[in-house]
User: What shape does this take?
Amino acid sequence: MSPDSMALGSVRSAAELNERIRALWLRAGGSLSAQERAEYELLVVAWAAAIRSRVAEAA
Assistant: This one.
């Protein structure tokens, strides 16, 4: 997934995003290229938003 292909408004579960982060690290072999790093940063931001949303719903 390229950073451009991840829609900012798309809704993904924290678990799905976590799985995508893990898969990215496995594919990269523990060392991210610049493009992979950009993808990782987008995934982490989306994951954090999903976690915040889940916490807000629980409150």
Observations:
- Residues 1-9 have pLDDT under 50 and may be disordered.
- Residues 34-58 form the longest helix (25 residues).
- The helical segments are 14-28, 34-58.
- The radius of gyration is 12 Å.
